[in-house]
Every structure is written in structure tokens, then in C-alpha cells.
Known about the structure:
Elements: H1 2-8, H2 10-30, H3 38-70, H4 82-136, H5 141-165, E1 176-179, H6 180-189, H7 192-197, E2 200-205, E3 212-215, H8 217-235, E4 242-251, E5 254-261, H9 268-271, H10 281-286, H11 294-305, E6 308-314, E7 318-326
Parallel strand pairs: 2-4
Antiparallel strand pairs: 1-3, 4-5, 5-7, 6-7
Helix pairs in contact: 2-3, 4-5, 8-11
Amino acid sequence: MLKAFLKDRLLLIILYILNLASILLFFYLNVPANTEFFYPISIGMFLLLVYLVIDWLRYYPANSGVARQLRNQDAHLEAYTEEQKGFKELLSKTVGEQSQKYTELKEQNKERLYFLSHWMHHLKTPVSVIELIINKEEKTEALEKIQLENKRLHFSIEQGLTMIRMDSFENDFELKAVDLLSTLRKLINSRKREWIYQSIFPSIEFEEEQAIIITDSKWNEILIDQIISNAIKYSGEKDGNKKLVFQIERKAEHICLAIVDQGVGMPDYDLERVFQPFFTGENGRKYPNSTGIGLYLSKKIADKLGAAIEIQSELGKGTTVRIKWLAGKND
């Protein structure tokens, strides 16, 4: 900061020294016999030093406060000079205006989310009614297809609601010990019809009886369910029987899950962007059901849960999604 202070006053210091030198030269030219330069220069430099010290004492508090605030640290801006007071007043005015705009935008966004959420909840009602009607009728191939599409619609509505709920994630978040095996079995059982319809055989590979992880059970289920949904969607595009393997592995203080599908896979150049919202890549141009939301939501949820997620894929052979959680203690 001292360097910046001296840099700001370099012109003043140079002009002061030139002025001092000019005065001494003037007196020397008028009285050549007078060769005493030491005392006038000492007095002049002493006065310059006194001025700089006083100026530094007025400069430092305000500028150190600015520096701390730029480092995102709490600091009070103390203004001593008229320039600093003007800057502080301008800053307060700008902050006030931006805070008001931010509050207005926040309220507008809150209102939009409120209406969007209500609208999506209303959509769930006809979807549930269709499901009830189908369950009461005798099963036919056509009805099973309608039921499958109805479930897909229900899943898309839930995805939309999950995106809305992400804004208030911290209000609905509770870390605790969760058995990953139980979670996987629950999610696999909830999609029995889809496994059969798409000719996919899910299996879990893990030798222990429990795989305890530290996470939020509800959000963690949503996270894994997004991956499973993608695996089913892109495995179903291939003919014949396919496998979906859930490989659990304990690594030091972590539990790792690899969800390995035998779907259509993705090209290498799409992998870097798969976690971006609404990115569907090459598969999005081939398969109309691609939304670009599932993996984006998975990454957002994983980040908030403190879990690591990565993806590998080979075009035509399948995709592997790996998730890593902090391990808990088994019962």
C-alpha cells in the first residue's frame, strides 16, 4: 500500500523538489557567494516528509478498508479527506441502488417460482388420475406404453419441481448416516416395469451387508435417480438385453458407487459439457427425449451434498457415472 501511496504522489514530490531546486538556484544566481545548500535542502525535505507522514495517516485507514473489502473481509470505510468522503458517499449511493434492484429482482423471481411451482403441482393431478385409471383397467400393450409415457411425464414434472426446490436447498437439508444399499434397492424396485419394458437387468455388486454414507437421504435419492433415469433412457435405445450394474467400493474414508450401463454412450467431445444445463450434445439430436436436465441436476445436488461425481463414456458401448461420498460407520 505504501508503494501505491508514493506512486500517487510522485508528481507532487517531483514538483516540490524541482520547486526547491529552482528557489535555491535563484538565490545562488543572485548571490553567488552564498553556497550554503545543505540547511535549505534539509529543511525543505523535512517539511516534505512531515507532509507525507500526515497525508499517509489520512490515506491509510480508508484505503486499507477498501483493500480488506476487496478481499471479502469485513471492514469499515473511514473517510478523512473530502475526496474520500465523496467516494464513500458515491459508494453508499451505488450500493443502495443496487440493493434495491437486487431486492426487486429477487421478489420477481420468487413470484415467478411460486406460480411455476403451483402450475407444475396442478399438472401432477391429471398424471396421477391417468395412473389410477390405467391401474384399474385390464393390462394391454397399449396401456402399458401409455403408463410408461405417463411415468416419464411425471418424472419430468418432478425434475422441474426439483430445480425450483434447489433455490431453498439449505432449508430442506439434513446430513445423516444413510445405507446406500437400501437406497439403491428402493430405487431399483420403484422402476420394475421400466426394467422389464426396456429389457434391462439391474444388479448390485458389493460384498458387505451395509454401505453407510453421510448424506441427506432425500436429495441423495434424487441424485441417484437422475443417473438411473438417464441410464434407462439411453440403454433402451439399443436392441436386445442390457445390464445396468451398480458397483459399490469402499476406498479409505469414502464409499464409491459406479453406475455402469450398456447404453448408446457419448462421444468424447460431449463429456466436458454434460453437466451444463440443457446441454444434450449429439445424443440430443438423435433422441427426442433428451432434456439436458438430469446430469445438470445431479452435479448441482452432488456439489451441495459434498459428493464428487464424474462421468466416463464410450460411444456405442455405454456410460459409467461415479459418485463418491464420505463413509459412515456401519451398525
